Fold:
Amino acid sequence: MSFLRIENVAKHFGSLIAVDGVSMSVEKGECRAVIGPNGAGKTTFFNLITGMLDLTSGRVLLEDQDLAGIKPAERVRMGMARTFQITEIFPDLTVRENIRIPVEIAAGLHLAPRVPTARRAELRARIDQLMEEGGLTRIAGRYAGELSHGDQRACEIMMALALNPRLLLLDEPTAGMGDDETHAIARLIRRIHRDQALTIVLIEHDMRVVFNLADKITVLAEGRPLAEGTPAEITANEKVQAAYLGGAA
Amino acid sequence: MSGFDLRKQVPNVVVWLLLLTMPLWMNAVGGYTQLGTQVVVMGLAAMSLNFLLGYTGVLSFGHAAYFGLGAYGVGMTIRYLVPSTGIGMLVGTGVGALAAAIIGPMIVRLRGVYFAMVTIAFAQVFYFVAFRWNHVTGGDDGLTNWTREPINFGFATLHIEQDPVTFYYFVLAIFAVAVAVMALLLQSPFGRTLIAIRENERRTRFLGINVNFHIWASWLISCTFMALSGTLYALLNNFVDPRALYWTQSGVFVIMCVLGGMRSFWGPLVGAAIYVVLQDYLSSATPNWMSFIGLVFVVAVLFFPRGVLGIFRRKSVE
Structure:
């Protein structure tokens, strides 16, 4: 049994076929990268997994449970957390409040009129721990909207982790970042993957990051699966070189 | 995290000192007690709207419906059913809450201007009912022939029907309870999910929150306190007419929030004070008072885009 199994999914927008018959199996604890040239359907593929878009055909299964008809928010509650290509945070709140909200949601308090006194210390410790892991402690009091791109992304990843997910989906975590920021985010993802044995699926353009982090790589091109394998196999694959790496790698 | 911060309490202390001492200085600055009562009533209405507008990020342009339902609820109860202020207020608030609870699920899927338009449409339905149903509501002439009744607590009777100062403190006590409940809710984990929706709806959904349900809950809380303030408004005037339900009244509440500052807890109260006092002063000086209020509004929005209290925005900590 695979942890996340995607069977032959397709998404058509009218006559445009964005994703066409993609299958993928991700094992528990695996870090899987999904790569492909622009317009390959990677983000659409992600949106099919998280339920933001409805499938035209195919199935998505999490631990053998078919997710058809399950809304995005419910999938999150089942343990599927995600980040977005364009960082989605709470810009007018401080970093600490950004982290505090998902911590309280994970504690089941999203409808609570107050935090039970007995749980205050535990929640505070959890917030502190997440900020420490994400390297956010030094900027805890800053408004999230004022931060650098890299810090905002770290904040978003820690918000997703605050939910104690079983599966973390990262849509281009280093998009638009400089080298230093890219390194920092890649280090953060590797640490999360290693320390918590978290299952991660990520879309990424930066090949150094992909070959550095991924256990296995799935290559999409024009909405179709092109290849799948370890980083070494993908590098050696001639079809991938021709279609995607342009022979340059 | 440093526990009790005295500086954060300064606005609360100033607001409560001014409100509690109002009857002592109101006449000296050229006002009168009923004007102060009106500020508190409209302040509660604007703060109720702001629970939804400023803290959940959802613009309703039809809140006058619930204000008016509260007002007609208390007036009609006293006139037709029982001469009891307490029961009338319960009925008025209850009717407003019930209407909001039923209408809510039909509109919470909408966003932005679509939500605002549909709230206007629902509010206009209530307006036309009050306007047309002459023999029950009094139609355009309003609901008359009733007055607020003294409140009997068993061991003592509160004579709110005569002395304006007694009635002022009665209104202020209700205001205090309502505002305290809203403040506690906003500082709760539930309140933070509402602020999260305002900040970024998509992020909030992908933290596992059922966003539409939370907007419905915020809408219901907001409309319930709106109806409560409507009951006080009717009791203040011993009268209610369909204009309390009209869409321009909804607009006035939005103006109060924007004027005072939607991101600040007391902002709408300040906005209501400015609006009510200006209206009182200008309408006795000129029949064109609305244009002057409009002018003040334009100037305020130009110079205080976050409202009058928006200048006290919290600093980011380096």
